[in-house]
Amino acid sequence: MKAKIAVLAGDGVGREVVPEAVKVLKAVAERHGHAFDFVSADVGGQAIDKIGVPLPQETLTLAKQSDAVLLGAVGGPKWEGLDYSLRPERALLGLREALGLYANLRPAKLYMALADASTLKKEVIEGIDILVVRELIGGIYFGKPKGIEKIGGVERGVNTEVYTTDEIKRIAKVAFEAARKRRRKVTSVDKANVLESSELWRRVVTELQKGYPDVELNHMYVDNCAMQLVRNPKQFDVLLCNNMFGDILSDEAAMLTGSIGMLPSASIGAQVGLYEPIHGSAPDIAGKGVANPIATIASAAMLLSYSFQLEKEGAAIETAIVRTLDLGYRTKDIHSAGTRLVGTGEMTDAIIRNLG
Ligand code: NAD
């Protein structure tokens, strides 16, 4: 197949791991006879430095005209003093909104070779396979009113958590459909004991479940869920979350699997899907060639499966990652005694060799 992929490396380690994922995609294209056209553009802090805004019009147009977007990460200390409206992270919100990406899928699956890299006991995490389905363009990150105002000499910061019935329905549908391809269990996360928006969330999800009698539905308060994720993560199959709860819980789920450098994500909704590692720009390790490229390479695998329906090719990348880990290759974040410490590029080369 022929496809155009927008490549937005962004800042920090994004600039190191995205080219590695592109290398893997090129290797897959060559082996399976596909023609992928990779077009790069500026985003985040890098775009601010060059053009003055985090999401230039040219980048947005490229993203809209592509078949899929591969993103690295944005942000870093250099831009932290800027006004919120100009910060690198605004680019993410802008892309999600403009592309209508209302569903963020974050799988947290334990690679058995890495069971020892987790801070949790092996018996607690062995066999975990969770899919966090996070609502991405609603809730408190977008709700209005928002801002900081001064009333009578006192400053007041305001954000608004708001969800409509339709917004809840469309994300819950994604969770129920995903559960049907997995272990048929959805845990819907809310704070319905305190928040009205959660009360509506719970009611709408419960109603929608009637159309999915083959899928089991549980509701769980977010504080309990945070606790259960470290106590007994194996109980979860699909976790359905609003924007903020999903943001926080997916990082927690990530840590169960050993390193944030391992976890991919897919954001879908309308025509163009966006694929990115769940980690940020990691300024503490950027430029050292030690970043783990696996989260981004696994995001590229999701891109092939979800946007191009190239499931076989996506699975080939995942198998190559497992093989490489089984052979003992480890970047610094997942390294343990007796395994082979490699840098970003060496890890990618090993994965490409294991593509079969
Ligand atoms: P982070 O994910 O960048 O880093 C957290 C920790 O994980 C760090 O110790 C880092 O070294 C490590 N880490 C991250 N990716 C790694 C990789 N591939 N391999 C090995 N180790 C890795 O989160 P942070 O430090 O809170 O944020 C840094 C910057 O990134 C901030 O400016 C933040 O706003 C931004 N950020 C961007 C995104 C995104 O672009 N989607 C997401 C989160 C944070």
TrEMBL record:
Cofactor: Mn(2+); Mg(2+)
Domain of life: Bacteria
Main location: cytoplasm
Residue ranges the record marks as coiled coil: none
BP-aspect Gene Ontology terms: L-leucine biosynthetic process
InterPro entries hit by this protein: IsoCit/isopropylmalate_DH_CS, IsoPropMal-DH-like_dom, Isopropylmalate_DH
Pathway(s) this gene product operates in, as recorded in its UniProt entry: Amino-acid biosynthesis; L-leucine biosynthesis; L-leucine from 3-methyl-2-oxobutanoate: step 3/4
Isopropylmalate dehydrogenase-like domain residues: 4-351
Gene3D superfamilies membership: Isopropylmalate Dehydrogenase
SMART domains linked to this entry: Iso_dh
Site (described: Important for catalysis): 141, 191
NCBIfam families: leuB (TIGR00169)
PANTHER family: 3-ISOPROPYLMALATE DEHYDROGENASE
Subunit structure, as described in the record: Homodimer.
Name the UniProt record assigns to this protein: 3-isopropylmalate dehydrogenase
Species of the source: Nitrospira tepida
